Each structure stands twice: as structure tokens, then as C-alpha cells.
Amino acid sequence: MTVPEVYFDSRTLDSIRTGYRSDTLPTRTVTVKTGQKALFDKKTGEILGNIPQKIFYNVYGVDVPTEISPPVVSLGEGGMARQNVVVTYTILPEGASPAGYVAASAHIDLFSVDSTGEDSWEDFLVGNATTGRGTAQWTKGKVFDPKKKYFVQTVLNRGSDAEIRGERVPLPTLLADLDIDSDNNAGWKPDGTHNLPKRDTLEDQIEDQVGRPGKVLKANLVDTDGDKVPGYADGIDINGQEGDGASEPFYPLMFELGGSVFDPAQATVRFQYAGSNPAGVEKVVSADETVSYTLAPGALRLWIKDGQFSRKVADIAQGGDYVVPEKAYPLSWFEPVAGPKGWTLFVEGVRGVTGAEEKRITLTVDPDGEGPLAAVEGDLVLVTSIFAGLVPDYNHDRVIDEEDRARAAQGDTFYFWINDDDDEGETGGDDIPLSVVSSQESRRDCDNFRIDGVRDLIDFFPVALDIKTLLGIFQPNVYEYRLKAATENLKVVFPELTTETVENYLIDVETARTVALKQTFPVPQDKWPTNGAYNIAARQGLSTMLATASTQDAPSVVLLEGVKSGLASLVLEVFDPDGNKVFTTSLNLSLGNVERMFRHVNLINVATNEDTPPQHLSEWGEPDRLGEPLNCPDDKCLNTDGKEFVFVHGYNVDGQQARGWQAEMFKRLFLSGLKSRFWGVTWYGSETQRETPLGSLTFNFHINVRNALHSAPALRAFLNENMEGPTSIAAHSLGNLLVSSALIDPEKDSLTAPISNVFMIDAAVPLEAFTGELEGGGDPNYSGGDALYTGGDDPAVYTAANPMAHPDWYGYAKKLGANEWYKHFIEDVAVGGDKDQRQFLTFKNRFANLIGANFYNFFSSGEEVLDTHIGNPGLFDIATNGPGRYAWALQEKLKGRMVNGMVLGSPYGGWEFVDDYTITTSSGTITYLNKSMPKDKANQLMPYDLKIRPFFNLGWASPLPEPGGSDWAEAKHDQLLAEAIPAMTLPVGGPGGKRMNDAIFDTNVIDMQARFTNTNGWPEERGGISKIKWLHSDLREVSYLYIFDLFNQLSK
Question: Domain extents for the chain?
Fold first, then answer.
């Protein structure tokens, strides 16, 4: 043989490795015996022949059986093995040498065969044993191409003459990859559907990690198509809810199959998940016809159709669209969702998950169906279905509860008004909605960046951020939360309230005063900038609230202020550190002028006899709005119970001021839970109104009394035509005369409207209109007046026992007075046979014939306008006692005593004596000049004489006692009642009103000052809690904070 000249080292008995002259050794041809080495002596260069010759050999029959574990290698994303792949080989014969075979080395070779049959070496492993049993493994994550077939082969003594190769053993692979947007950053398509998962390495790493949420999805509760059916019960062929566009899009779930043992014609797949059978949805109709839907157990559903399409609830095996949990399906059933990269299903969450098991969706594949291979649990993804929402007070009862949460979940629109009036402090503001002007000139509260006192708080609405679960998933110190409003239609306040304290900003004095000092921040279209003190404060407010919300049980609440009209949404978005949006939820809002939330009728033209229709922003008031309000649909906004609520303003209120009264009454009732359709009635109660340094004053009360009486038939006709259900009417001040006349005037056309309640508030109507011969009224502030007037020693004469009697008439018989003149005609018949109309010139018993409605008298013991006046009346009473004090009593006691009728009293009738009076005696006639008739003579006058020659001054009403006086009285009836006939009782709404229950009202007589003022405070500008007095217009002027309980009662 020819060998290189390698020298032998006799000391080591081995070859010498160094010291050669060149890298290329000379060669020689030599003859050696079996087992000898061809080595040369370094000195002599001769071949060494003394190496022993090997004569005996151990000969082995070697086998290397090889096994694979697991029997089928499950592959995931990118063909990565889900487990360690262990190759076990056994070198036979086993045991120690010489009985067992000991190999020089052991390796495991990996081969692949592609679809063309080409064989390729891929990889190798080094075995851990060269004798007996050994193993080698590819660790989890080893990549295999699912399109290839793989084989393993054990190799012993690689590269030697004794190299041994075992049989090639198949390495079965099965790709079963399940993917969803586990890192929650796939985003949305322009049409609102969800992008497919990215299916990258990071997503695959976290999709099944314990402690992670996986895909976070909103439970499908939203009523997408507005049919009052939650998404989970809509768009499916049960209860008649099939049809496209009835549900929000679902979340794509992709699965891909492959591998060497996968047989698409025979394979079956199963999905293990907490399924809620859609066929189990039940429609429940309660006794009051309220409709609700119940779910079958479970939190998720898998479909072969996306949510915006109509779906069949049957199993896909029966031609439906629902994938039943734990059921084995051949792949042919998934043909509709097959794609080039696998199959796409759609996940629907129907309720929040409550445990770890409910989060799991597991794919199990039987690669050959009924063949010998066992089913393999393939991929697992986690899905967390949650409710995370922005929840307003839908039923506006100052509580945010589960009912509101359910409505927010189903995407109901919340309706509210924009803050376009000008409130100030605790009692300031006229509440008239203002038009949009430049921000520099605007007085609208929404155009500034503050809360305009506690009176302004009624124009803010609370929204709970019900996101504690979300905060636990996306920690606010890692993820960015953004509040957004696409049209910048909102401003936000961070009031440090929760759902447990949400109403306190409206009813708790300390809380309200604290919140009223807060700043308002415009809700941005995207996010608040990071620079500028104002933006930093906004960001800090949100950050602080989120940090608090993540640790407390009750959701935090923000207050929102409407700035622009229109449909828009408040949006909460969550972004990961890379700027990817991972979650979004929203609240549908409809904002508008408050007058677009209630109905309105204008009766001003009835009194003015004008044909010109009302003009917007004029003193003649707004046009009628009789249809359903644009920004407050009866069912969706008010959840109306079929009832009606009508509000009628009082005296000294023109067409624009009426807007303020109606707007504020609606707001206060709305926030007290009103469910009735609200109607504002405008009437002409401001004739002769002028602007003065003290504000708008209407000088002639009497002409507006006449207007009230004259408008009553029109109000009655309006009620008859428009009231569809049980109707409550609330009236203020002189508005009660209009309402009473419309409802129960015995001489008018019949009332057909279903009136159920009448709320008389600060009623400027004499008690006698309801109580007949009752006099005085029992003013507790008047000496001896806490009992009803009984007439004293002589009930037939005027005395100081009745504060409504003019002192100049004390001692005169009542039959002489204008208030008693009607009695002289009670039995009379006018020409033509009808009743003499002069018998109706009185307010006594005018409204005594009460209909079946519940009447309530809300009076105030602290009244100033309706307060009891003692003694002689005069203008100095107003000058010395403040604006409005005693106004009602003075206009009654000054009837007939004024030079003209422009201020307070009138120049005829009433308490003015006739100038001259002639009587006939047996000796002739006697004329008493200049009111000189003695009382005793006057008191002897007979009714017949008084009928034709009244003892009071008739003035321009001189036709009254004449033969045609009945017709004249009928024609001038309202004017005469207003100007010439004085009341002999205190007003219903003043301090004397408490006695009304003794006559007819039983217990429905309520002192607002005692019953409805907030025991925790009273406006500081009124002197605070130590000086509580409910004044005439406090129903509107004093902040809702202090009198909310009255509106609670009215709304109930």
C-alpha cells in the first residue's frame, strides 16, 4: 500500500505529529500485515515491523431500532414544533463489551422528501449514548415544513469503515395552527370589520400564555340597527330577527392545517370552547310588555359568517352557521370559509368571561378521521370577552345602575342638551337658550372653560367609565387611554365621583360647591397635546381618574357638557406603547338645544287677537312644536310611560322669558326621572312689561288676569286635541288662573283630556275661587289668622279680621261691596230667559266643581309676592318692603283706588265708594255728596237699590246696572273680574294657602319652604341656611341643588 512517511515515536508508541521538513510528506509503497501500522523509524527511515499483527476480531450483528415521541409532531405558527421532539434509539446487542456493541459515535440524521420526491438531508442530532439505549431531541420551536415528509435515521460510527445506519423512520407532522389577534393590534378595516391577525412570532408566543388575556373583545350587546334587540339576539333566524346589518362585526379566528399525516379528505376538527348556543336565546315579554332576551350558558360563539350578515343558529352540519363546541367536523363543512392560507371563523362574545377556562379556544385535529391515528390537540388561543363601556344615566334618575349599563352595552343613544344658557352662581340666570355668536361675544356657558356656579351643574351629564376589567388588562401606566370626540362637541370635567356618589353633584351642597370650582376641558378629536399648562391639566385629570378607577370597586364618573348640536360619540381608545390601537369603546350621543327635547304651544295670539304667527327670538314667543321632539324621541329618550306633563308659566313672563321657564322646568324634571311627554305652554302674561333698573316688570296685573281668562278656552281645546294619556299639569303663579279656568270653569265647554294631576305652584288665585264663602285664609303670620275667618261679632260687615278688606270699609255691610254685588242677581233672569250674567261677576266657587284630577297646592310660607298685607294699602308698601312684596294683595286692595289702572289697582269698582248716592224716603229724596252717607244709613240699603245704584264707584262700567247690564257683563266679564271685583281671601300660593286643606284639598297642600328645601344648605346670596325663604319665583331661580326634592315629587 502507498502511505505517507510518518515517523514512529518508540516512547509513546504512536506517530510523531510535528518536526517534519515540509507540509507535504514523501510517500512510500510498503507491505504490512493485518493489524499493523505503517510507521517509519525516524533515524533509519525503515518501516517498523515489530508492531503486533492482529489475528482475532469481535464481530457483531448490529441493529438500531428508532422511535419518535410524540407519535405525531404537532406544528404551530411557521411550522414550529409545539413540543420537544424526542428520538429514542437502541443499539443492539445491548450491554457492556464484549457482550454488547459499543459504537464509536451515534447520530440522528433528519431527511425530508418534498412533493416532487426529492430527498434532502436536513439536520442531525448527537445521541447521548453509544451503547444500549440513547436519546436525542429537537427542542420545542424546531421548524418543520408542513409541506414535506420527514424521516429520521440513526447513524453509528459516522465516516468510518464500520459506519452503521439504521432504518429510516417516518417523523409524522401535523400542522394545526389557530390564530387570533392576540396582541390586540391588528386594527380595523375602513368598513369597520376587523383585520385578520398578523400571525407573527410575537402573536404566537403570547396567544396562550397563562395570565394574559389573549384577544380582548367586547361582548356583543350593542343594538346596531336600533330595533331594541341586543346584538347577541339579533341578525339570527330566531324570534324573527334574521337580516343583515343587525350586529357588529365579529373577530376573525384563523386555523391552518397541514403536515405529513394530514389527510384533508379524511381529517376532522373539533373546537373546545365555552359556547353559548344561539338557539337558546329566549325572548321574554313581561306583564308591562317590556321585552328582554336571555342567553344560553356560555360566553362565546364560533360562526362561519361575520356578524354583519344574517346567520342561521343551526349547527353547520345541518346547514346552519354555528360551530358547535366539542363536535368533530370534516373539513368539507368549512368550505365557505376556506382561503389560500387556511380557514377563517368568526368569534362572538356574548357575555363577560368569569374564569380561565372560559377564555380558551382549543383546536383538536384527527388527521385521518376514522383512520388509525389518534386525534391531536393542536393550537390554543385565549379570548377574553368583556364589557367595558361608557355608561350614562339613561333613565335620568341621577343613578347609574345595571339598567343603564345594559343600555350602554347595547349601544343606545343618550340624549341631552347643549349648555347654551347663561347661569351664574346659585340663583343667577334667566335660562333662555342663546344663539351661537362669536366666542368673544358669547354669553353661552358652553363657550367658556369653567362651571358657572352650582346653578350651571344641571347642564352637565354624568358618564361612568365602567372599565375596571379593561384597566386590569391594559394597565394605564403602560398603555395610553384617550377620550375623544370627533366633532369636538363636548367638554369634560373630572369631578372625583363614582357611581355610588354620582348624584351628589346635583343634590349634595358640599359636593356641588366643590365641583362647581372645577375646570372644563374640550374633549379633543385625537388626544390632548403634551405641551401647555391647560393640556397638561387635562391629561393629569384623566390619568388620576384612571389610576383611581383601577383600584376602586365603583366605576369613576366624568361630567360632560354639550357644546355643539348633532349626533356624535364619546370615544375611549387604548393604545399600546408602539402606538397601535388595541381597544375602543364608545357612547352614542345626540346633543341639541333643549327646546328640541320637548313640545310647545303658543297661545299669545289668542289674547292679542293677532293673526301674525310667532317669530323666533321675538317677545311673542316661539312657534308651536307639536310633533315628536327632534332630540328626545318619546321612547328612546324619555322611555315614556304614555303620560303627559304640561307646564304653564306665570305672570310677568314674555315669549322669550317663557323659553327660559320651560327649558329649566324640563331640565329639572328630566333629571328627576320624568317619563312623560313634556309640553311648555306660552301665553300672554306680560302685557305692559317694561325694562327697568330692577329688571323686566309688567305693571298692569289686571290686564294679564284678563288675558289668562281669555286664553282658557284655547288651552282647553289644546289639551283636548293633544293629550293622549294621563296628564299632569303644573302651573306657576297666575298661570294657575289660566289652568283652572281651562279645566274646571263651569260655564265653559266640556273638558275631554284625561287630566290626572294638577300641581298649583305659588298660585296667584284667590282661595275663594275654590272654597266659596271662606274668607281671609288663615295666614299664620296674621294675628288670629291661623283659624279660618268666621266673621267676628257681625259676619255681615267688613272688619279687620279679614286682612283682604280695605280698612276704609271696616264697619260697612258686605252687601255694599263690589265683591258681593253678584249676589243681588242670583235669582234674576235676563232678557231672553237666560241667567243674568251679573251673577257670575265673582271668583267665589268659580273652580269649586273640581273634576276627578288630583289637585295639589304647593304654597310657600316664605312668599313675598303673595304675602299677607295688613292695613291700609299704598305704593309706599312696595317702596319700603322690596320689589314684589305684597304685590298680589295690594293689587286686590287697590282696586278702585288708583287714578289709572296701569300699576297695581284700578280706577273703578273695588274699594272706591260711589261719589254721590241718592236714596228715596217717605219725605222725598236725599242725596249724599262726596261719600258722606253714614255707615248706618248705608248698611240699611236694600239689595234692590244696590242692584241699580251700587255703593261702589262704577266708573266706566256704568252700563252694568242698566237694563242691558247682563249682556254687557257677559261681554266684559273677564275684564270686570280682573279689575273691579276684589278678592276676599288670601291667594292659594301664599302663606294662607296652608288652610286650603281644611276646605277641599285634604292632605295635598304642601308648604314648599318646609318640605322641599335642602336641609344641607340654601344659597349664600340669600343668606344661607339660617335664612331660608322660598320666594315667588324660586321654583326656577334657586339652583336645582336646593329644591330638587320638589321636582322628584312632580316627576313621580
Answer: 1-57, 66-171, 177-386, 389-592, 598-761, 792-844+867-987
The distance in angstroms from the start CA to the end CA of the chain is: 119
Is the distance from CB of 325 to CB of 357 less than 8 angstroms?
Answer: no
Question: Is pLDDT of 50 > 90?
Answer: no
Q: How far apart are CA 1005 and CA 995, in angstroms?
A: 8
Contact, 545 vs 558, CB < 8 A?
Answer: yes
Q: At what angle do helices 735-744 and 701-722 cross, to 10 degrees?
A: 50
> 551: exposed, middle or buried (C-beta count within 10 Å: 0-12, 13-18, 19+)?
exposed
CA separation for the pair 105, 1052 (Å, rounded): 93
Report which of 326, 297, 181 is spatially closest to residue 249, judged by C-alpha positions. Answer: 181
* 378-411 pLDDT tens trace: 899 999 999 899 999 999 999 999 999 988 988 8
Please check whether residue 610 is in contact with residue 603, taking contact to mean a CB–CB distance below 8 angstroms: no
Instruction: Look at strands 132-138 and 695-698 and give their pairing.
Output: unpaired
Q: Which three cell numbers stand for residue 595?
A: 327646546
Taking residue 463's Cβ as centre, other Cβ atoms within 10 Å add up to 28
- Phi, psi angle pair for 369, to nearest 5°: 60, -115
168 Cβ contact list (under 8 Å, min separation 6): 111, 151, 152, 153
- DSSP E strands, 563-676: 566-575, 581-592, 599-602, 644-648
Q: Name the grid cell of 613.
A: 304667527
Distance, in Å, from the CA atom of 47 to the CA atom of 40, rounded to the nearest integer, reads: 4
**Cell reading at 577:** 406603547
**Contacts of 920 by beta carbon, 8 Å cutoff, 6+ apart:** none
What are the residues facing 573 on neighbouring strands?
482, 584
Q: Which amino acid is at 49?
A: G
Is residue 798 within 8 A of residue 811, CB to CB? The reply is yes
How does DSSP classify residue 81? Answer: B
Q: How many angstroms separate the Cα of 877 from the Cα of each of 709, 880, 923, 984?
A: 28, 5, 47, 20
| Residues 118, 155 contacting (CB under 8 angstroms) | no
Find out if CATH 3.40.1130 is the number for domain 598-761.
Answer: no
Query: Quick one: CA dihedral 877, 882, 885, 891, positive or negative?
Result: positive
Instruction: Of 804, 805, 827, give the one whose Cα is nearest residue 816.
Output: 805
Task: Supply φ then ψ for residue 130, to 5 degrees.
Answer: -110, 5
Based on its alpha-carbon atoms, the radius of gyration of the chain, rounded to whole angstroms, reads: 48
Contact between 801 and 792 under an 8 Å Cβ cutoff? The reply is: yes
Could you read off the pLDDT of 213-235 as tens digits, one per residue?
A: 999 999 998 888 888 899 999 99
pTM: 0.84
Q: Could you count the other beta carbons within 10 Å of the beta carbon of residue 298?
A: 17
How many Cβ atoms from other residues are within 10 Å of residue 403's Cβ? 14
Task: Identify the pLDDT of residue 102.
Answer: 93
Task: Return left, alpha or beta for 354; rule: phi > 0 is left, psi -120 to 50 is alpha, else beta.
Answer: alpha
The mean per-residue pLDDT over the stretch 331-353 comes to: 91
Which of 777, 1019, 817, 1014 minimizes the C-alpha distance to 910? Answer: 817
Q: What are the C-alpha distances in Å from 664 to residues 417, 433, 458? A: 11, 10, 9
Given its phi and psi angles, is residue 877 left (phi above 0), alpha (psi -120 to 50 degrees) or beta? alpha
Average pLDDT over residues 908-922: 90
For residue 586, give the C-alpha cell: 364608545
- Output the CA torsion 790→793→799→803 (10° steps): -30
pLDDT for the residue numbered 5: 77
Bridge partners (DSSP) listed for residue 583: 574
Q: Are 987 and 764 in contact (CB under 8 A)?
A: yes
Bond from prior residue into 70 cis (ω within 30 degrees of 0): yes
**Cis bond leading into 98, ω under 30°?**
yes
- All cell numbers assigned to 500: 355610588
Question: According to CATH, what is the number of the domain 66-171?
Answer: 2.60.40
- For residue 895 the three cell numbers come to 282696586
